[in-house]
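Supplementary Text 2. Reproducibility record for the structural model of the 243-residue chain.

All settings were left at their defaults, and a single model was retained for analysis rather than an ensemble. We include the record here because the model underlies the residue-level annotations in Supplementary Table 4.
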Amino acid sequence: MQITTKGQVTMPQEIRNRLGLLPHTKVEFELAGDHARIRKARRPPGESVRGHLALSTTGVTATIAGVAPGVAAAQVRVSTATCSYIPQTQVTVQKPGQLYILGDSYPILNNCPNTKYRLITYQVQTGGGTLGVDIKTDTQTKDTFSLVGNNTCNTGQKNSTSCSTDTGGQFQDQLSVNCNTVGGSCGFTNTNQQWQWCPPNGSASQVIATIGDLVVHNHGISVGGSFTVYPKGTIFGPSGKIQ
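Retained model, structure tokens:
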């Protein structure tokens, strides 16, 4: 049921029959908190300042005083024995269960061309291995480690523990020691990288992908035991690499 631009609604015939509202019956309504009550008029037309309804042979047309044209139906609730309309929205949340690699590459760092930089793009999917489905809505994830190693390059450390939003269910993992400030070979090793889903209801995060150890050095970067980039379509689940 929706209010027209003229502030009118049509009462269903079943309700009219139950209340004995015949064509040309005079009715009135009054505000009661956040809803309106509709009943047969108890006073001559024009005396009520609350508003009125004019019935036709096709239904009840209600003109609601003080309601601006175009007000959405969700903003008006009519209840009591007459009718009740409370709009409800049901949202189905797809539960992530794995990560699908969209891309894995070694781009060049313009400011440090001799330092390795690895960029992996993940797509969040439902579980099921090759039967997993992309989750295109925004999700929230975070990565954790069993142990975070010391960065011998003295250029900071990867240690993300906060949930962040993945637009369209996609995110990137950027791996590098940045510019080597000490010279020679340096870097860090973080053990057992796991990506976890952060449910929107605030409940405990859930592991959706176990990648493995990250060995991030200025001359090479190993992800889950591989210095070689993973092909598109590689899938990681809660227990590790699926394919």
